[in-house]
Every structure is written in C-alpha cells, then in structure tokens.
Amino acid sequence: MVLREPLQEGANMKILIADDRTEVGLLFKTIILRAFPDCKIDLAEDGEEAIKAFRTGNHDALLLDIRMPKKNGCEVYWEIKEIALKEKLKMPFVIFCSGYSLPEELDKITADTSNCAILKKPVTSKELISILTNASSTFK
C-alpha cells in the first residue's frame, strides 16, 4: 500500500510492538512510520521485554504477537492490565496478531473490552493502519 501523505490522526502516538520474529517487528514498524512519521515505536522480542518496555513507555497502543517466548500475548495483556490498574495508568489499545489459530482466552479478552483488535497474519498495511487510525481517537 502506498500512502501519498502521512495520516494526521494519531500522528504523535507511541506504540510498543512485541514479536519474537525481529523481521516482523521491523516490518510493522516500517508500515506504521510510513503512515505516522512522528510516531514513537518501541520493539520487544518476547513477552517479558514487552512488559518491561510498557512499565517505562506510556504507550498508546500495543501490537502483541500471540505466540512469543517467556510470556505469550495473552499473558502480556493480563499483566499489563494489572499494572495499569495498580498504577492508575490508561490501558493502551491492544492489537493481537497471530498466524495460528487463536486461543480461547482471546475470546474472553475481546469480549471484556472494545479497546482491542485482532489481526491474522499475514497482516496487510491497510488493515494495520486502518485499526491504528480508528483507535487513535481514544489515545488522548
């Protein structure tokens, strides 16, 4: 997908991308920065890194791979939700990504909140940018 002009909605958002495949994380970062060049992006390669990055990042959105080492995307979600509640932080918008069948636990997560989305890999640029653009109205 070619974007002629950067999107203005959500231009200053801060996003954490957590995927154990470095090339996937870098691809998502490239796609996002083409649409939102002023966006700040942190990368994590496993669930524990994602939680650590969240504690210091004040992220507007999380892009979580479902299957990661150390902690999977669902475990990361629950832990970050707990941190946000305890520390009175705004829960970021969460985009779950997976190329595999989705765990039943994800049904519970998505039923409890409208603050998340699911993307099946392979993800298109259009899908990812559309979700971030729509979600960005809830960031501030």
Q: Care to describe what's here?
A:
The chain is of the alpha/beta class. It has a single domain, classed as Rossmann fold. Helix content is 42%, strand content 19%. It is built from 5 helices and 5 strands. Strands 2-1-3-4-5 form a 5-stranded parallel sheet, sandwiched between helices. α2 (47-57) packs parallel to α3 (73-86). The radius of gyration is 14 Å and the shape is globular. 33% of the residues are buried. The model is unreliable at 1-8 (pLDDT under 50).
What is the assembly state of the chains in this entry? single chain
Order of helices and strands: EHEHEHEHEH
Radius of gyration: 14 Å
Mean pLDDT: 84
Descriptive key words:
140 residues; alpha/beta; Rossmann fold; five-stranded parallel beta sheet; 5 helices; 5 strands; 42% helix; disordered N terminus
